[in-house]
Amino acid sequence: MNENTITIVSGLPRSGTSMMMKMLAAGGMEVLTDNLRTADEDNPKGYFEFEKVKELERDASWLADARGKVVKIISALLKHLPAEYDYKVIFIRRKMEEILASQRQMMIRRGESSEGPSDERMAEVFAKHLAQVEAWLAAQSNIDVTYVSYQEALANPAGCADQVNNFLGNSLDRQRMIGVVDEALYRQRR
Question: What pTM was computed for the model?
Answer without folding.
Answer: 0.87
